[in-house]
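[SOLVED] Predicted holo structure with flavin-adenine dinucleotide

Edit: marking solved, answer below. Original request kept for reference. I posted the sequence and ligand SMILES and asked for the 3D complex as structure tokens.
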Amino acid sequence: MTQTADAVVIGTGVIGAAVAYELAQTGLRVVSVDRLGGVGLGSTSSSASIVRFHYSTFEGVAAAWEAKFSWENWPEYLGRRPEESLARFVKSGCVILDGSTQRERVLPLFDHVGVPYECWDAETIRRRVPGMDPGRYAPPKPVTDDAFWEDADGELGAYYTPDAGFIDDPQLTARNLMAAAERRGTEVQLREQVVAILQQNGRVQGVQLGSGGVIHSPVVVNVAGPYSGRVNDLAGVTGEFRIRTRPLRQEVHSVPAPADYARGELGPAVTDGDLGTYFRSHFGGQLIVGSAEPECDALHWIDDPDDFEAQPTAQAWDAQVLRLARRIPSLSIPPRPVGYAALYDVADDWIPVYDRTSLAGFYVAIGTSGNQFKNAPIAGRFMAALVHACENGHDHDSDPVRYRGHFTGNEINLGHYSRLRQPHAESAGNVMG
Ligand SMILES: Cc1cc2nc3c(=O)[nH]c(=O)nc-3n(C[C@H](O)[C@H](O)[C@H](O)COP(=O)(O)OP(=O)(O)OC[C@H]3O[C@@H](n4cnc5c(N)ncnc54)[C@H](O)[C@@H]3O)c2cc1C
């Protein structure tokens, strides 16, 4: 079958669905394609979906803060139908323990962008998050190292952002966005894999599908998550990228929250660079815990995103859950690993690539590095602004498009996300971005 569109979006994860929605809002006829059988079934479905604002660059903080207003006004943002079930933003706050970020770098960015925060000492941590031990154990160590079991050598402070939290259902979030896109005319094609990017005279012409179908389109956007590098290969643009993307395997584990933790209520999200984890409360009395990629742990880069161990391993379980148990001493640890593994699409500097390419009409929203779920609404808007500017002849590479936030008025230079940038030296170099 041959059809035509104004834009093809490859991938229906949370970023792909947001890109489709925002392009459709500008009047384009969008076709969204995904190789899987449902919307949001890729890495999005495994997301911890924490909404936080501590990033190491102005653009990182400003983007996350701007996106927060769409999460707060989710039904309005989507133009929802009354019968629709919607994902919810649970504002549980976020505690960033000392040793997690460079506080002297992040707090001035908060002041600049307008993110409210509180500075806590160890006593405040104990009072505000009962059950959490503010002991200082840094640097993070392997749990097989005797030094891991040594007593704390001091106490931590923290900063706290009351507006942070998490989205209760990441996959539903992608479905909400795609339903909104469909209401604006987007067509979704599932179980369809893009196998070729059609091009002529340096300009994209559309995509070819594994089923044999062809979609002619002057605009194609690669939002393929951990498959982003493969889709760039199909387009023949990989060589020009100074920032490469690679799949990284990560585990997330789930343990029952102790009855005394956070007074039995939903606790805040916590970034614990002191021990090398992040964690948050979840419904049903659970805590979920992931890795903050401490230097002492090896990273599991994956060559083939279709071939990785999806079950949790005893090694990662021990590392993450024992670190969590140091922070929450009353934690009881189930006898067997509970959790899953999934893939990040990691950019060299852990900052995404939202950009055009030298193949006219071929765009990328990739390298989301385990930290862009929260930015989906603004990533969609970035891409819509970029596509329209470039398709109208603007040279984004030499004169980067600037985006002014609808809600905050903050101006974000989209050159920050360029594929041609030098890696951002100020990045945390891990999932914190
Ligand atoms: C374990 C984990 C925890 C995370 N926690 C957080 C968090 O707490 N906070 C936060 O902000 N972010 C977090 N993230 C990151 C965030 O979830 C991701 O950045 C985001 O979900 C990526 O969405 P996406 O649409 O780019 O990719 P995906 O959801 O992976 O979607 C890509 C889609 O492209 C499709 N596709 C690929 N190739 C093709 C092809 N050739 N043809 C057709 N379809 C194709 C795939 O099937 C897939 O559905 C986390 C990620 C993971 C994995």
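OP edit: The longest strand covers residues 245-256. Thanks to everyone who chimed in.
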